[in-house]
Structure formats: structure tokens, C-alpha cells
Amino acid sequence: MFATQAASADPVTDFYRGRQVSLIVGYGTGGGYDVYGRLMARHLGRHIPGQPNVVVQNMPGAGSLRAANHLYTTAPKDGSAIATFGRDMPLIGIIGHNPNLRFDARKFTWLGLVLELRQRCLHAVRAQGCRGHLDRGCAPTRAARRSSSAAPAKARPATTCPSCCAMRSGSTSS
């Protein structure tokens, strides 16, 4: 007596085999999101059952809001379209105060991160020095930054920037 077992096909593998997955990038070509998207597209297909071809589709507009709206309203809901857009898009979707918003962020499925960025808040303090510090991309010396950030505004010593100016102690600029 022989028993045969029906060949069990994996429905996910069958779905993706020979298909194309669109990776929608919410920004134009050549930028950071585009580079990450193209790098991810090059390797992602090998990690999806059925090994589909992953193709990047750039969709710039409104800080990637256009891509998020497209993914939610127009793109197929079968797993053949995924997207990368601004990290703030889910928050914008939850807050919901943008009249151009067309998605419910709670209904997106989070797949993961390509790169974890540790972002820091920039705290700017008006330091005494030449007006061109920010324009020229130079900064006061470390000692000057330490002393100017600890002292009250009126008593701050002058900062020295060897790149663009050398101020005399006691002089001020606005």
C-alpha cells in the first residue's frame, strides 16, 4: 500500500514568484532616501519568498506626503507595493491637521528600518562673535564656546574664530 501526499505549495512563494514589487521612494532621485531605497531594492527580493524583482519608483512631493497618500489610496494592497517616506509621516497622519492628508497612519504596516539615525535637537545660543560665523560655517573655538555658554549674556567674553575674524575682548556685535 502506498500513500501519496499532495504537494503543498507555499501561497506566499507562489504569489511573489515572477512578480515585481514596487518600492515607492517619497523623494527625488539622487538623495538619501533614493540611495537607501535603491540599495534595499537590490537585495530585498532575495529575502522575500518567491524572490520577486524589486523596482524603485520615485514619487517626490510635499516632503513624501504624496508617496504616503499614494501607498494608502492607490497602490495595490496585496504586498506588491511598499514605500519609504519621511520619518515624520506617521506622526503627521496621527495628528491629522494637514488638509492634504489622505491616509490613516494606524493602518500602515511597519516593515523596518534601513538605517537607525540618532537625531539630536540643535540648541542654538547667540554667541558673541562676528556676524559671519554661521554664514561661513565656522564656529567659535572650544574654549570660547565653553566660557560663553556658562556666562550670562552681558558678561560673556568675546569669542575668537580663527577662520574668519579675531575679536578684541570686550567688543560686541549684534
How do you describe this structure in short?
The protein has 174 residues and is α/β, with parallel strands linked by helices.
Oligomer: single chain
Average of per-residue pLDDT values: 77
Rg from alpha-carbon coordinates: 26 Å
CATH class of the largest domain: Alpha Beta
Q: SS-based structural class?
A: alpha/beta
Number of helices: 6
CATH architecture of the largest domain: 3-Layer(aba) Sandwich
Strand order of the largest sheet: 2-1-3
* Low-pLDDT residue spans: 129-138, 140-174
Strand content: 5-15%
C-alpha end-to-end distance: 97 Å
What do we call the CATH homologous superfamily of the largest domain? Bordetella uptake gene, domain 1
Percent of residues in helical segments?
A: 25-40%
Overall strand count: 5
Largest sheet: 3 strands, parallel
Envelope shape: globular
How do the helices and strands follow one another from N- to C-terminus?
A: HEHEHEHHHEE
- Whole-number count of domains: 2
